[in-house]
Amino acid sequence: MIVALAGGVGGAKLASGLAAVLPPDELLIVVNTGDDFEHFGLHISPDLDTVMYTLAGRANSELGWGLAGETWHCMEALEQVGAETWFRLGDRDLGTHLARTHRLRRGESLSAVTSALCRSYGVAARIAPMSDGDVRTFVHTREGELAFQDYFVRRRCEPQVTAIEYRDAERAAPAGAFARALDSADLEAVIICPSNPLLSIGPMLALPGIRDRLASLRVPRIAVSPIIRGEAVKGPAAKILRELGKEASPMSVAQIYGNAINAMLVDDDDAQQIGQLGEMGIVATHAPTLMKSAADRERVARTVLQFAQSLRERRVTV
Amino acid sequence: MIVALAGGVGGAKLASGLAAVLPPDELLIVVNTGDDFEHFGLHISPDLDTVMYTLAGRANSELGWGLAGETWHCMEALEQVGAETWFRLGDRDLGTHLARTHRLRRGESLSAVTSALCRSYGVAARIAPMSDGDVRTFVHTREGELAFQDYFVRRRCEPQVTAIEYRDAERAAPAGAFARALDSADLEAVIICPSNPLLSIGPMLALPGIRDRLASLRVPRIAVSPIIRGEAVKGPAAKILRELGKEASPMSVAQIYGNAINAMLVDDDDAQQIGQLGEMGIVATHAPTLMKSAADRERVARTVLQFAQSLRERRVTV
Question: Which of B44, B74, B96 to mutate to test binding with chain A, by most A CBs within 10 Å of its CB?
């Protein structure tokens, strides 16, 4: 069984590649919920939705979030009445937010709601939130502390970051499916998808016991670098790394993950970093990792699964 | 100053006629909130919305509720995920529900939120909820007790009614604007619009002190009959009256209102009831009251205002 940790768009792409090449019962996709927030009383889970919509083949590829073929009539009405419109709520997307919020208020866990929504959207792969508790990512910037969506959407990642905080992470238990998968004798590898290491993966590593549990696993834990040639494919990862005094490189990503990983897949263009990664004790390899098409996603998924397989065969991870 | 009490579609029509012929500061439209309910965590005020949309010229005349040019993409998404879809939430209408809910949760009163929404929709007339408290109409039927929307929308008014209950009405204070208007020295008349007497007007009359206050007023209190030739123009008023053992007639409506009214405008087709109404002490007159066009609404509005004026001149209400 493979556990894949994923955040937003990049993570969803590799997760969908893995879902395309693995049987549903051999994959668990664990998704960041540090971006979750309440807006107009609705519980919004941006990363869970991105992963679900991507796996359902319903993601809006032009926008990079939300549903394909979306309409914006509710937003027009909110504009009409002078309500906040910085966070765009698509009419179809609202159905997900309303249904999720309603079920959560009825007492269902976010894990249960996620499973139900995924079934409704015809997603066979198992998707779990990282936790059923509330973890809220806050971005400390030179302009003060910002809740994640304030930083990411309202301020468009412009303020200079000084620190990232995963508020209440120490009190949030990993979701049952996540914890069980890491403890499972069937676990063959953990794959950290090419998501923002600080904003998307950081919240998961901040959950109680997760870093230690990953570090103690005797299976490959492979990070796919979200940084290619000094830049993030999408999003503010490179900008934030530089603002925090780090270089935007696979090396920096590996340092953030520390001993939670023992292997890394970097892009061909970063092949020269493999030696340095080796000095850190990380087995690295390179391949084309840019995912533009569905075929790309499956190819990268197969590459990382083969890498995991070769690591297991050589027992380099023991 | 004129106070008009209104519920759904029929009430909204006369209210819009009154708004068309009176200056904004000479009219207060008080709207039923006994139909209000929570759905998907949203505070929905069907009658306030019907009146607001009608006065804004934005009402969906085909449906008889909601906004013109509405789309239903959120509902399609709710259907996709197997959520409840018996109450239709239009995409544009959702903007109103989200904005209202958000402002209520922030601590604003329903009166304040209503005023703000009306300004946004370009409605000059003053519209107030009957109360800022929660009154919830329950319909007791041969199939058990049903919350109003369960009876009205989900069960399409099919179950046979045995009683109507205005739950918590005794604890809900009339909204400030409503109470002040009834106490105002400038009050010239109260007009009860042709709304369902039991479902739309009944909740207002059940508020503490309202019946007595109306009965003690020395101004015309005129009900416009919602029943024409034994039938309601729209909705279940006639059916409910018969189920409760009353005939569907202006007489029955007058009996329900009791001494809250002292005058009545009935349709030409019910002119023969005027004598009986007189025996009850009610001054009645007749005119064409069916409102199909905007011109009809203004004509009925002028008719009822002239009726009020003539009653004041003759001091028949003192």
Answer: B74
